[in-house]
Specification:
Elements lengths: L8 E7 L7 H12 L5 E8 L2 H14 L3 H15 L4 H16 L16 H13 L5 H4 L6 E8 L5 E5 L5 H7 L9 E3 L2 E5 L23 E6 L12 H32 L12 E6 L14 H19 L4
Parallel strand pairs: 1-2, 1-7, 2-3, 7-8
Antiparallel strand pairs: 3-4, 3-6, 5-6
Helix pairs in contact: 1-2, 1-3, 1-9, 2-3, 3-5
Length: 322
C-alpha cells in the first residue's frame, strides 16, 4: 500500500456513471467518509453522469471542510430524487415498464427535442437546491481536493474533463445528458452529451502534471457496470443489458489501460521519479446483475437498497485499512 510522507494515502476517487445505479456509489462514498481510522486523505474526485453528481456532493462538503455535510448531501439528494409522491411513483413505474417493454417489442424512438425538458429541469432544481454553485469560487483554495467531471463534445467527438472552478450546474447536466432521453447541453457555444462516450469516469487526468508529490498514491474506482457475468446472455433482453454494461465499461477500461501503461514505464525506470510515480488502482464494484431499465428506476425502495448495498460493499473493502 502506497504511503505519502505524512503516512496518509493520497486518494483519488473515480465514480462511474449509471443512472439510478449510482445510488450504490452514494452508499460507497458515505462509508468512506464515515471511516474513523483515516489512513488516507481525499485529494481528488471524478465522475460521469450520476457518478458526477455523487462526486460533486462529496466535493462540495469537502470544500467546506465538513465530511458530515458531504454525507448529509448524499442522503438528502437521493431522498429528494426518489419517487415518493403518488403521481411521481406512477410516472416512474411507467418509465421503467416502457423501457423494459422495448426489449421485447419494437417501439418508435422519440427525440427528446419533441417534448419539454421536464427531466433536465427537475434535475437542475435538485442540484441547485443542494449545491450553491455561485459559492464554489469563494470556497476554492490550494488545500481543496480536485473535482473532474466528464462529458463529450457532440460535434467534435472530443472528451472534456471540467475541473474545479469550471464546475457549474450546466456542466453536471451535460455529463448526465443521455442522448436518447435528454437534450444536449450548451456550454461556451459547444454542445455536450453524457460523459459515458468519453471518460466513464475521468482517471488519466489524475496523473497529469510534472510533480509526482501532488499526484494521488491510489485511485479507487467505484464501478456500477459489472465487469463480468456468470452466464452467456441469450435472450434479447439479456443481450441488450450486457451490451449496455460493456459499453459503459469501454471508456473506463481505456482509462485504466492508460494508467497501467504509465505504471509499467514507472516500474521499469523509464520516467523521472520527480514527475511520475506508481499509482495503485483498486475497484469497489457493484456486482448485482441488474437490467438497463433499472438505471431509470427512482423508486424509494430501489434507491434505498442500492445505497445500503454500496455501504456494505465499501465496508468489506475498507477492512483492508483497519
Amino acid at each position: 500500500m502506497a504511503k505519502h510522507r505524512n503516512d496518509k494515502i493520497r486518494l483519488a476517487i473515480a465514480c462511474q456513471g449509471g443512472g439510478s445505479h449510482t445510488a450504490f456509489t452514494a452508499g460507497v462514498l458515505k462509508r468512506i467518509l464515515k471511516e474513523k481510522n483515516k489512513k488516507y486523505e481525499i485529494v481528488a474526485l471524478s465522475g460521469t453522469s450520476g457518478g458526477a453528481i455523487c462526486a460533486l456532493l462529496v466535493w462540495y462538503g469537502l470544500l467546506k471542510k465538513d465530511r458530515e455535510e458531504a454525507i448529509k448531501l448524499l442522503d438528502s439528494f437521493w431522498t429528494d430524487n426518489s419517487a415518493s409522491l403518488f403521481w411521481d411513483k406512477l410516472w416512474n413505474d411507467w418509465i421503467v415498464w416502457t423501457s423494459r417493454l422495448q426489449d421485447i417489442v419494437s417501439m418508435p424512438e422519440v427525440s427528446p427535442y419533441l417534448y419539454p425538458p421536464w427531466a433536465q429541469e427537475f434535475l437542475r432544481s435538485l442540484l441547485e437546491k443542494h449545491i450553491d454553485f455561485k459559492n464554489i469560487e469563494t470556497l476554492l483554495d490550494d488545500s481543496n481536493p480536485m473535482l473532474l467531471v466528464g462529458a463529450v463534445d457532440v460535434l467534435s467527438g472530443e472528451s472534456r474533463s471540467f475541473k474545479n472552478n469550471e464546475i457549474s450546474v450546466d456542466v453536471i447536466l451535460a455529463s448526465a445528458a443521455i442522448p436518447t432521453f435528454l437534450r444536449a447541453v450548451r456550454i461556451d457555444n459547444k454542445v455536450y452529451w453524457d460523459g459515458l462516450f468519453s471518460q466513464n469516469p475521468p482517471i488519466r487526468d489524475f496523473v497529469k502534471g510534472s510533480n509526482a508529490s501532488v499526484k494521488p498514491d491510489e485511485i479507487w474506482v467505484i464501478q456500477v457496470n459489472p465487469e463480468r457475468r456468470a452466464n452467456e446472455p441469450k435472450s434479447v433482453k439479456d443481450i441488450l443489458d450486457r451490451r449496455n454494461e460493456l459499453a459503459g465499461n469501454l471508456s473506463l477500461n481505456q482509462e485504466i489501460y492508460f494508467l497501467n501503461t504509465v505504471n509499467g514505464w514507472v516500474d521499469a525506470g523509464h520516467l523521472p521519479a520527480n514527475q511520475y510515480k506508481h499509482v495503485e488502482l483498486r475497484r469497489i464494484e457493484m456486482l448485482y446483475e441488474l437490467d438497463t431499465a433499472s438505471k431509470l428506476d427512482r423508486s424509494e425502495l430501489f434507491i434505498r437498497d442500492m445505497m445500503t448495498y454500496g455501504e456494505k460493499q465499501a465496508e468489506s473493502f475498507m477492512k483492508q485499512f483497519q
